[in-house]
């Protein structure tokens, strides 16, 4: 009998399965004692290579990848991860063969149906499904299934499963910028006047012109305008206007007020107020925790246009050599433990930098390690 078959028979025996389950629960419980990443993303790479190495159909390799996803999701949600984002299908994958693309689309329909019919995992941890990407590229029946899955899990609010399908990060950023431009092209209501430097200057100028015009009208309307009033009038205003022509000044002020009113009626959001937070609100992940951990399998060390905007200075990016269908707790556990160790070290360094230092003491710079 082949060695691999013997190993499979041993691990599938009930006593060994029970022991492995208990050990698994013990390890997950130990993980919960430390900090847990709130947002984890996975690039599920290696399904086709796994199928080729094992002499099976490519679609079957993707099916095994879905089973690995179910195992990893349970580990994440049981450990306390709040948001899981998976790279299910890239927009660039439409360039693959029609047979493989059709197989992936059909598999997506089947797996969505399985999640909804046997969604014990989703209901147990209160997971809501959100599909992110260019839905217009999908067939109408698949879009209907996606809407049904999102609707049936919309009441779950404890955790989130983001399915990027079909998706690229460049497309997400471009869409967010387009939506921001659309929002900033709409006039603001009068009660939402922007706090900008140009608006303040315009208001002050209008008030100065109004005060100057009223004083000129008062001087021209009084029959006895002596030298004292001339001096007062010359020093009370610094604008270069002729006192002998008050109607022109009045018309200037009226025109300035009308222009100011028209500007206020057609006030648009100030483009200078566009910040990172504004763009964040237009991303697919708006309102979600920042990305803490990104894992890619199959040994390929690139992001493949995935979560580029969400990756920040504290995001840990890990590349593993195992293929995605082989990924389970035993490959994921060392990644989580190392993330916890790095996070504790980072927090300790932050605490030390905030604490007062003794005269002459120096602070060691943290060592950066490339993954």
Please describe the structure with a list of short key phrases separated by commas or semicolons.
disordered C terminus, 371 residues, alpha/beta, elongated, six-stranded parallel beta sheet
Sequence-ordered SSE layout with sheet pairings:
Blueprint: H1 3-11, H2 14-31, E1 39-43, H3 47-53, H4 58-79, E2 83-87, H5 98-117, H6 120-125, E3 127-132, H7 140-152, E4 159-164, H8 169-184, H9 197-221, H10 227-236, H11 246-265, H12 276-280, E5 293-296, E6 316-319, H13 329-354
Parallel strand pairs: 1-2, 1-5, 2-4, 3-4, 5-6
Description:
By secondary structure, the protein is of the alpha/beta class. Helices cover about 55% and strands about 10% of the residues. The protein contains 13 helices and 6 strands. The protein has helices spanning about 5-10, 15-30, 45-55, 60-80, 100-115, 120-125, 140-150, 170-185, 195-220, 225-235, 245-265, 275-280, 330-355, and strands at about 40-45, 85, 125-130, 160-165, 295, 315-320. It has a 6-stranded parallel β-sheet. The radius of gyration is 32 Å and the shape is elongated.
Distance between the termini: 40 Å
Q: What's the tally of helices?
A: 13
Radius of gyration: 32 Å
Reported for the largest beta sheet, the result is: 6 strands, parallel
Strand content: 5-15%
Helical content class: 40-55%
Q: How does the overall form come out from the CA principal axes? A: elongated
Overall pLDDT: 80
Succession of helices and strands: HHEHHEHHEHEHHHHHEEH
């Amino acid at each position: 009998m082949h060695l691999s078959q013997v190993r499979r028979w041993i691990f599938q025996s009930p006593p060994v399965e029970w022991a492995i389950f208990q050990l698994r629960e013990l390890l997950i419980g130990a993980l919960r004692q430390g900090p847990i990443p709130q947002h984890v993303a996975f690039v599920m790479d290696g399904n086709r290579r796994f199928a080729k190495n094992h002499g099976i159909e490519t679609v079957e390799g993707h099916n095994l990848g879905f089973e690995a996803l179910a195992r990893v999701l349970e580990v994440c949600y049981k450990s306390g991860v709040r948001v899981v984002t998976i790279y299910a299908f890239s927009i660039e994958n439409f360039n693959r063969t029609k047979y493989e693309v059709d197989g992936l689309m059909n598999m997506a329909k089947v797996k969505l149906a399985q999640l909804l019919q046997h969604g014990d995992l989703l209901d147990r941890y209160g997971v809501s499904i959100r599909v992110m990407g260019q839905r217009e590229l999908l067939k109408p029946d698949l879009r209907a299934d996606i809407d049904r899955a999102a609707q049936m899990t919309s009441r779950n609010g404890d955790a989130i499963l983001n399915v990027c399908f079909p998706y690229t990060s460049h497309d997400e950023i471009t869409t967010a910028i387009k939506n921001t431009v659309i929002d900033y092209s709409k006039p603001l209501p009068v009660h939402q006047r922007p706090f900008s430097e140009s608006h303040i200057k315009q208001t002050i100028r209008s008030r100065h012109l109004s005060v100057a015009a009223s004083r000129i009208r008062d001087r021209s309307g009084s029959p006895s305008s002596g030298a004292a009033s001339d001096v007062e009038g010359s020093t009370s205003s610094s604008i270069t206007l002729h006192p002998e022509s008050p109607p022109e000044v009045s018309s200037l002020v009226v025109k300035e007020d009308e222009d100011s009113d028209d500007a206020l009626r057609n006030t648009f959001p100030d483009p200078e107020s566009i910040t990172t937070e504004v763009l964040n609100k237009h991303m697919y992940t708006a309102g979600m925790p920042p990305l803490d951990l990104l894992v890619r399998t199959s040994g390929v060390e690139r992001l493949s246009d995935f979560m580029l905007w969400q990756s920040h200075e504290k995001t840990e990016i890990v590349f593993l050599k195992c293929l995605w269908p082989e990924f389970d707790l035993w490959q994921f556990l060392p990644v989580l433990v190392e993330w916890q160790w790095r996070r504790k070290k980072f927090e300790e360094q932050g605490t030390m930098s905030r604490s007062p230092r003794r005269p002459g003491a120096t602070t060691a710079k943290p060592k950066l390690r490339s993954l």
